[in-house]
Amino acid sequence: MKKIILTLVLIMSFAFTYGQTKWHEKQNKHFVEEAAKEYSLNESQQKELSENRMVMVKSFMDSNKAFKSGEITEDQKKEKNRESSKTFNGYFSQLVGKPYKEVAPFMARMRKELKNL
Questions:
Q1: pLDDT by residue (tens digit) across 24-42?
Q2: Which of 6, 45, 48, 73 could form an S-S bond across to 41 if both were Cys, CB 3.0 to 4.6 Å?
Q3: Half-sphere exposure of 28 (CA within 13 A, CB side)
């Protein structure tokens, strides 16, 4: 009985993890497509953007996981997420060749759209 329950828990956790990853990939794809339209990014830039954004997403996921397991406090989680966002935003501004002030409306629009995917 214990083996059956353990197996079911393992299957469920794998399914949730796989579903989360697919959702993040879908969000990332949408973000890159919209950025390519908005800022006329070439294929190489799109690939680089996709990779860098996934690094940020993974950082968010890792900090959330560490918070839930009690490894870090909520303030530490917020700081890690803030630092990841700051790094990505700086990278994105540099990629599109515009100061963050000019890309901020695009980023705000993307946050709203990505929540609803």
A1: 889 999 999 999 999 999 9
A2: 45
A3: 19
Token pair of 79, please? Answer: 């700081």
Question: Residue 11 is encoded by which pair of tokens?
Answer: 């299957």
- Determine the residue type at 17: T
Residues 57, 32 contacting (CB under 8 angstroms): no
Question: What is the rounded CA–CA span in Å between residue 41 and residue 32?
Answer: 9
**And the tokens for 7?**
């197996």
Mark out the alpha helices in 40-99 (DSSP H runs): 43-68, 74-96
- HSE toward the beta carbon, residue 68, CA cutoff 13 A: 6
Report yes or no: 63 and 72 within 8 Å, Cβ to Cβ: yes
